[in-house]
């Protein structure tokens, strides 16, 4: 049991007046439990989790980059290589 002289015991004193961070507007978005969000709102009226700044669309057309794995040339090279390997195996089996 902790005594009154124990330094780990802390008591919360009421603030004389609310701090500016307590007076900032709140997000208010309905959360999963159905309660309004209590996070501080940004200038757009919502918090960082419910409609913060958007990073925007990706620059350039990065989603259309081709890696070349399925091009006609790559497929033809793989087929040629498979045929060479198959021929080599047949030669080894004959010996």
Key terms:
95 residues; 0% strand; mainly alpha; 2 helices
End-to-end C-alpha gap = 87 Å
Please state the CA-atom Rg, rounded to the nearest Å: 33 Å
Q: What structural class do you assign from the helix and strand content? A: mainly alpha
The proportion of strand residues reads: under 5%
In short:
It contains 2 helices and no strands. It is mainly α and 95 residues long.
List the helices and strands and how they pair.
Elements: H1 20-23, H2 72-94
What report would you give on this structure?
The chain has 95 residues and is mostly helical. It has a domain at 22-50 and 69-94. It contains two helices and no strands. The protein has helices spanning 20-23, 72-94.
């Amino acid at each position: 049991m902790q005594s009154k002289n124990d330094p780990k015991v802390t008591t919360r004193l009421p603030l004389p007046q609310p701090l500016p961070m307590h007076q900032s507007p709140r997000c208010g978005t309905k959360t999963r439990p159905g309660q309004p969000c209590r996070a501080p709102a940004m200038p757009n009226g919502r918090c960082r989790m419910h409609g913060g700044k958007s990073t925007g669309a990706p620059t350039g057309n990065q989603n259309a980059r081709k890696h070349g794995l399925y091009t006609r040339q790559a497929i033809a090279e793989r087929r040629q290589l498979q045929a060479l390997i198959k021929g080599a195996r047949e030669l080894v089996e004959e010996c």
